[in-house]
Amino acid sequence: MPENISNRKSKFLVPAISAAIVIAGGIAAYLYFKTTDDDSLTAMSSAKLVPANALMATYIKTDTDSWNELQQFGTEQAQDLVKKRLQDFQQDFFSGSDVSYETDIQSWIGGVMIAVLPEHESDSTQENISSQTQQESNVLLIIGIKDKINALNFANKLKQQKDSQIEESEYKGQTIFTNQSNNQPTYVAILNNSHILLAPTQKAVEKAIDTYKGEASFATKEGANSLLSKGVDLDNTLVQIYLPDHANVIQQLAALNPQSPQLQSQTIEQLKQVKSMVAGIGVDDSGLRFKTIINLDPQLSKLNYQSSPGKIVSKFPNQTIALLTGQDISKSWQAFLEESKQTPEIQQGVEQARKQLKTFTNLDLDQDIFSWMNGEFALGAVQSDQGLLENVGFGGAIILDTSDRKTAEATLKKLDNLAKEQSLNVKQKTIAGKNITEWEIPFQGPLIAHGWLDQDTVFLALGSPIAETIANSQGKSLDQSDRFKTITGSLEKPNGGYFYLDMEKATSVINNFVTANQPLPADVNAILQSINGFGVTVNSPNQSIIQMEMLLSLKEGNSQ
After folding, report:
1. pLDDT tens per residue, range 412-470
2. Cβ distance 321 to 507 under 8 Å?
3. Could you tell me if 237 and 61 are in contact, meaning their C-beta atoms sit under 8 angstroms apart?
4. With b meaning 16 or more CB within 10 Å and e meaning fewer, what string describes 314-328?
5. Quick one: what percent of the chain has pLDDT higher than 70?
6. In the Cβ-directed half-sphere of 193, how many Cα atoms lie within 13 Å?
7. Cα dihedral sign for 207, 212, 217, 219?
8. In terms of C-beta distances under 8 Å and separation of at least 24 residues, what long-range contacts does 165-174 make, across chains too?
């Protein structure tokens, strides 16, 4: 989403909540003293009040039980930090009033949907509206009311607030309240005794009332209904985002940002491969989980998904800090070349890369580099404080399976000759019965090593200690470690590979290398100490769907 759209929302939310003052003028006449049914406090019920032409919508759960699940995680310092940041945010949010979210709002608010409407739906001809308000006019909030008595108590309290100018008008039998507080108009309506409409223009509220009166809604929009019905499969969803018409959304949001470059026709065609998308954030026993489901147009999709067996993880040691795995780089490269034909700039860049590589290394990018990388692969960073890695704290390695060992060996031979031309010493040694080639910097030590772990698996390692560890294959492998199992064990399987990060090991590298042994700020360190790590994976059950899942694995509070 363009940056200015995000800014518009944040600029609108503060006066919008303050504009709940408007409710005080008419809430007693609209609210019955009873609690709203739970069925009316869902994303679907809110979407029924959003106009069908909305570009996207976000639904945020507000019940305390869902958010309190996060309290089981993190160090005491991290929990205190989060609480303080939340308190600071609330104080800034309600500055100038004695309103407290926990005391005055939390008990009656029943979920919030934020919808983005097309820019042209704003009432730009309306008088007394600032240019900034016109730019913000595409935001519509739907706030559920779960406890009308507490909502009325809040309204009565708001009557005591100052600097509020309230006006009333009628539209199709519904009262619209206009609040002119701080010269920022906010328009409010209460529908069906269960939802509050909030928007910075009257036109947006009127469109929502039209929807309430029977015009097509976001809930019935093609693509949106299935997204709302199915959502994402999370145990305890906190936030969900719905994009029913992906290409149209991106184009219109880009058009709202005058500083963004104009989308080229090739880019628009690529965007059309994605029909719709739904994403969600939830909390479960493992931490914060993020899922995205992308629905593709099977007639346009050029999806190149391949399931990865995941066996190559066992080739990396327990000291691995981060790992990226996947399948068949060669096929992905061919797919990329096919896509680049539609974009002259990319195609030109590929040709330039081919020429440069051939000129300086005598290697053919397609044949010598990518053609033989047709099996599973893994690229990882591994802890080490020996040799040339002593001051860095880690080295790296790439391990690849191939069915074309002959071509791979020919490429490695060319690389060895290139190293000799650069005055490196190329030596042979044996590690655990495996023939290993090392490139040594004179008077400093080995820099790079490569060799075969078995008939079909080759590795290249940065740093001799990393090569020793991988070739020896002694000790616990990464796939056997408790940390790896914790971070990736609950992710979808089968999948196309992993991105894995061990935060404890990464923090050690940051402390020793990035910050030059200077301590991290206390608040940053508290957060990092609460995280086990990240796990990300992608899978595709068929040609029409891509699913991405990410887990921010958090430490339990009593595990510190």
Report:
1. 999 999 999 999 999 999 999 999 999 999 988 899 999 999 999 999 999 888 999 99
2. no
3. yes
4. ebbbbbbbbbbbbbb
5. 83
6. 13
7. positive
8. 166/21, 166/22, 166/24, 166/25, 168/25, 168/26, 169/202, 171/205, 171/206, 171/209, 172/209, 172/210, 172/213, 174/209, 174/212
Roughly how many angstroms between the first and final C-alpha of the chain, as a whole number?
Answer: 38
Handedness of CA 115, 119, 120, 123 (dihedral sign): positive
Residue type, 425: N
Q: State both tokens at 368.
A: 């010598």
Within 8 A by CB and 6+ apart from 505, the residues are: 319, 320, 321, 383
Q: Which residue has the tokens 């958090």?
A: 554
The pair of structure tokens assigned to 537 is: 């994976």
C-alpha angle 385-427-366 in degrees, rounded to nearest 5: 90
Cβ neighbors of 276 (< 8 A, separation 6 or more) are 223, 224, 227, 243, 244, 245, 246, 294, 295
Instruction: Residue 373: name the closest of 453, 449, 459 by CA.
Output: 459
Contact, 208 vs 50, CB < 8 A?
Answer: yes
557 close to 76: Cβ distance less than 8 angstroms: yes
Q: What is the pLDDT of residue 283?
A: 92
Write down the pLDDT at residue 159.
Answer: 60
Measure the CA–CA gap between 459 and 363, rounded to whole angstroms: 19
Rounded distance between C-alpha atoms, residue 322 and residue 191, angstroms? 51
pLDDT one-digit tens code per residue, 188-241 = 888 877 888 888 889 999 999 999 999 999 999 888 888 888 888 888 899 999
Q: What is the tens place of the pLDDT at every residue in 277-298?
A: 999 999 999 999 999 999 988 8
Residue 3 structure tokens:
């940056």
Angle between helices 23-30 and 148-158 (to 10 degrees): 150
Q: CA–CA separation, 278 vs 276, rounded Å?
A: 7
Q: How far is the C-alpha of 493 from the C-alpha of 245, rounded, in Å?
A: 28
Angle at which helices 3-18 and 246-256 cross, to 10°: 80
